[in-house]
Amino acid sequence: MIKIAPSILSADFSNLKDELKKVEEGGADFIHLDIMDGNFVPNITFGPPVIKRIRNVTKLPFDAHLMIENPERYIDDFVDAGADIITVHEESTRHLHRTIQSIKNRGIRAGVALNPSTPLNNIEYIMEYIDMVLIMTVNPGFGGQSFISSMKRKISDLKDIIDKRKLNIEIQVDGGIKLDNAREIANLGAEILVVGSGIFAAEDPTEETKKFKNI
Predict the structure, then answer these.
(1) Does 142 show up as a binding residue in the annotation?
(2) How high is the pLDDT of residue 214?
(3) Are the C-beta atoms of 158 and 187 separated by less than 8 Å?
(4) Which of 7, 56, 134, 193 could form a disulfide with 172 if both were Cys (CB 3.0 to 4.6 A apart)?
């Protein structure tokens, strides 16, 4: 069964506790936290203090997607705030292997994200150390963008690499995922779908989460 990670970037922050409860009731598997610094991407969201405040609201794992420059400086802060998975961008850190080691040394899962224009071979020599690859199917920085269709081949190519090398890596896809394309994306090899406005813009996020779980 496909795993669903609702992104709170599209949630109502004035009512965040209830929003989290709604997607948990709908069967969400993770809460996706889009962390933006205004440098790596042209937007600013939130940081460890917000994560720490909402950690006790839900039992769902927190999936922290760090769209920030030099993420290695903040690994301990996000782990201490309650992150269960930390994903860093290949493009954002000079020493990716060291950054992944820092995450793993804190006893949590580590992922690497790739922007749409970043080739898969950029992570060829790091894959045996990571738990997840996040394929960005929009340019990071804003919610509500349309899925970039050329990323379909990137997803299927990554699936082939993982299968051939017999790696224990999950494929997560983030950007422009809606009910009308979610099944196709899953069939390409995606195992975790990040969904923002596709869930939180719905009249009933609980029921919408259930629909994604049953694609």
Answers:
(1) yes
(2) 95
(3) no
(4) 134
In which domain, by residue range, is 186 found?
A: 3-213
Known binding residue 107? Answer is no
**CA separation for the pair 171, 124 (Å, rounded):** 15
Tell me whether residue 174 is one of the annotated catalytic residues.
yes
Structure pTM?
0.96
Catalytic residue among 29, 34, 37, 63: 34
Residue-wise pLDDT for 4-57, tens only, equals 999 999 999 999 999 999 999 999 999 999 999 999 999 999 999 999 999 999
The pLDDT value given to residue 144: 73
Length of the chain: 215
CATH label of the domain that carries residue 116: 3.20.20.70
Is residue 12 a known part of a binding site? no
Residue 8 pLDDT: 96
Structural domain count, the chain: 1
